[in-house]
Amino acid sequence: MNIPAPRPALLRALLMPILLGCGSVSTMAMAQSEAPSSTQPQTSDQIGFSAAVVEYDSKTETVTAKGNVIANREGYSVRADTIVWNRSTGQVLAEGNIRSIGPDGDVAYGDKVELTDTLKDGIINNMLVVLADESRLAANRGARKDGVYSLNYAAYTACKVETADGCPKNPTWEVKAVKVVYDPTKKRVDYEGARIELFGLPVVPLPFLSHPVGTKAGSGFLVPSIGFSRNNGIELEQSYYWRITPNRDLNGSVTAFSDAAPLGRVNFRSLDKYGAVDLTAYGTYSDRISTSGVANAVGSNVFRGYLEGVSRFQFDPYWSFSASGRYASDRTFLRRYDISRDDRLRSTVSAERIGDRSYFSLAGWAVQTLRTGDPQGLAPIALPEIDYRLRMNAPLVGGTVQLQANSLAIARTEGQDTQRAFASAKWDLRAINGLGQEVTFTMLARGDVYHSDENASTLTAIYRGETGWQTRSIFATAADIKWPFVGQAFGGTQIFTPRVQVVAAPAISNLEIPNEDSRAVDLEDSNIFALNRFPGYDRFEDDYRVTYGFDWALRKNNFTADVNLGQSYRLSNQASIFPDGTGLSDEASDIVGRSEFRFKNIVKLTHRFRLDKDNLAIRRNEIDATIGSRGTYLQAGYLKLNRNIGPTLEDLNDREELRLAGRVRVARFWSVFGSTILDLTDTNEDPTIFSDGFDPIRHRLGVSYDDDCLSLSLTWRRDYQPVGDSQRGNSFLFRLAFRNLGV
């Protein structure tokens, strides 16, 4: 007979004799309305039932549960419309809307399940296993033994099988195999006789595929990448990922080429309590070609490679240590194997202490030049560089005082050596007066000591300084006034801020001091109001000057605009130490400005410029624009430097360049992308070159597909700048990345 359901606690008490085999009744039916999470934990020899109706047949020793049945034992649970448990044989048979959940979160679905009374071993028909990361395994028939799934003629995918509207869809890719084994404890899927089907077509055979599942990475081979380059021919890269420990891993790869020897790469990463380390090494044997195009005299098959690494450690809230290093065996290795286009490699080391009001740094750095014609012996090595700063409240007058002590030693194996030390004190006071003006007063006092030798080896005369010991004193004062006006305009709020700055600095013996860090002078909106418009410390702008300009801003709901303009005027006839063409050599400086406009997230336009004070000729014209959405956009960049300096000063060459890049989404997941870089510099701007004013540097064009589980792209690139064995020509790269299967 059927008995109406008692309260849950009473139900568990009535079921206990059945589960333990104590006592017998002919028929019993009960219902339970409470969620399964409210049931008490079962002991190892019990199966806990929750169902609308439970019947027990003492003759056949079977328990039949019907109606939203949930059975639990030792972390395993089974939900079904009907569950029949034969207590004599230990067989558990489940039918209808079956959902079997393992202790690791994997869920198996099926039409019919035959299990043992441990609930973790059995056979499932029409099996679907949803793993913890929502990837899926499916087969007509599968088995689970000790919690490990074995499926014959199965399929796996990490793609969604439903649209956003809940309609079924075919996965973009799936792995089909003769046999699939999934171990929830190891979080790993192993295949025999596997192949990857892409858009329903078999494309990649993988006879011994294995990969991890879940959020944690696991060791294994990654999906290979294929490409073609003019330098090395057809390229095939195969990588292996080794998860050494939870906080350390290693990625090694070998790239085979049709026209060159294989290239090896190893990347090691480590993260611990105090910091992280990332190290990468490349190596191969190949012919080394000099930048003049002649084979290296050492012969063929010489070792070539590249090392790079970075690390940072935070030992406590104040002290940290960081280091980075880059070294290439020769000047064209990085370009030939398309690792980097950098023409200088910088290595640094630094120990820092950052306090509430103090800063200390002990650092060093070195440079390896990869530029054609640059002697490595002239590249600087700085060790050590010491900097200490202390900020405190100024007594009596208010404001803040910053004390600084700095020293630097620069050595070269075949060039000028320079040592520097200075101490300075800087006072700043900012106040708002009754008219709403923001007034800032600044005073600076500094004393320098320099020593240098082999000065004649520096090619540019104004950078050399005098040989031996030199001293210098610097004093400067400044007053800066801003007066913002706020009002309504163009349907929004505008802020107009006139600004005036007065700076006084007595004459300084600059040219007697070596110039190591103040060479690349470029007057622009970011430094027009600076106390010293030279970069670095080796040059300090003296004389008396007034600088004036304004900032204007407009704020609307979907639109913002920012514009600033500035110019300075020297108040004495003292000769300027700025070279001609920098915009600061005459009494009146050039006019500099910047404007930036934004409309929602669709348009961003930035324009920087410098106008000649005499004839308003454009000495600097820089435009960066981004138009479009995330899927379809156009990026454009244009730079023209016409500073009229001439070739006598390094770091200040004129140039003209155009950069274009864009992406067009042609379908939901498909897009076409491309970019180009054009050198528009001609001999009028740089007499040392032979360009006709339209010299392409690199073109790139490709097509890509990206959805929730697949990323593939085919890219064509053409390089036009040959250097040594890095030749001009076409390159092709095919990239295929599967979610959960590596990249």
TrEMBL record:
InterPro entries attached to this UniProt entry: LipoPS_assembly_LptD, LptD, LptD_C
Subcellular location(s) per record: Cell outer membrane
GO biological process, one term: lipopolysaccharide transport
Gene Ontology CC: one annotated term: cell outer membrane
One Pfam family hit: LptD
Residues annotated as signal peptide: 1-31
All copies of domain LptD C-terminal, residue ranges: 303-670
Keyword terms, alphabetized: Cell outer membrane, Membrane, Signal
Chief subcellular location: membrane
Subunit structure: Component of the lipopolysaccharide transport and assembly complex.
Its biological purpose: Involved in the assembly of lipopolysaccharide (LPS) at the surface of the outer membrane.
Family statement drawn from the similarity comment of this UniProt entry: Belongs to the LptD family.
Name of the protein: LPS-assembly protein LptD
Organism the protein comes from: Sphingorhabdus wooponensis
